[in-house]
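pasting for ref. prot 1 ->
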Amino acid sequence: MKQLGTLYFFCGKMGAGKSTASKQLAMEKQAVLLSEDEWISSLYPDQVASFEDYLKFSAQLKPLVKKHVQSILRAGTDVVMDFPANTQKLRKWFLDIASEVHASHQLIFLNLSNEQCLRQIAKRRKEQPERAAFDTEAVFIHVTGFFEAPEASEGFNMLELNGKE
């Protein structure tokens, strides 16, 4: 029987480094990297003006992305998803992607403090001025209100990485 790919995905507050870590992991694993930000900006250019817009477009993407990722996993290729797994509901979606095709998975939890994330967001604002409208402390506080840290009871193969102070 053909070996299935492994699904890798990330949980972490805004600014925790999910995108950077996903790029590094995809290179290490020679895996397919899928970025939600890239899909949304390509499919819905200049249409994301608020967090609510992001949520709407993210929800529209999910059925297509799920089928696409499952096809890649069935072909035996690892997939790294730069899509946030920051709530129990979102993490269940990732688990369903893998379990429905009997593929293995790994949730990587970037467990950084609010202060560490805000420092990284401030740095990113300088390096990527086009993100300045969204990379603010106010947006961080709003988005962090929805964050749910993963729990063992959710049944994930999880690797927790703590930030270095």
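and prot 2 ->
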Amino acid sequence: MDLATCLKKMELVGVLAFATVDSDGAPQIRNISAIHYEPDALYFFTARGKNFCKELLEDGRVQILCYTKYKEMIRLSGKAYAVPGDEQMKWRDKIFEEQPYLGNVYPGDTRSIGIIFCIDKAEIEYFHLGVNPIFRETYRLGDVKLKEKGYFITESCIGCGTCREMCPQRCIEDGSPFTIRQNHCLHCGNCYENCPVKAIERR
């Protein structure tokens, strides 16, 4: 798996869930399919009068989620911005060309109510529940710093093996200290809750 494959899977899923936060701090989510994919960016269309557009212009932070029929979850966390005015028509026309149904929603000149946003810096997480052990990995879109997540066993480990026994994915290996194979970890916290000496940290 890699970034390009993640983006292709998102494109094949088609309709993606976009999550934002409104001015009252309440979570908002909507399905969006008016999207164009480039190797290094996503461009998407929405109307200027929508609350979605207002939230993006005010804050820009967005999470996008898709789920494939193979039990794969892909989550993109980034910041969207309105593309410059002289590029709006270029990306809008490309999106309408690739998504012909939009012509029924915004016929003729009414498409001019739309605004094109771009995401070119984001963290993309891939999570496959359809294999055993599960598989997860994180990728960069653009110049972003990845956030460390999950659980890690510290030097306080006494080697008792409790964490390994409690792991539903059997992804903890013997050692001094024991280690978690991060690409197969569920982040469920079972090892963390059951370690008798509290040697496991949550990052």
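The first helix runs from residue 3 to 13.
Residues 21 and 27 are 5 Å apart (CA to CA).
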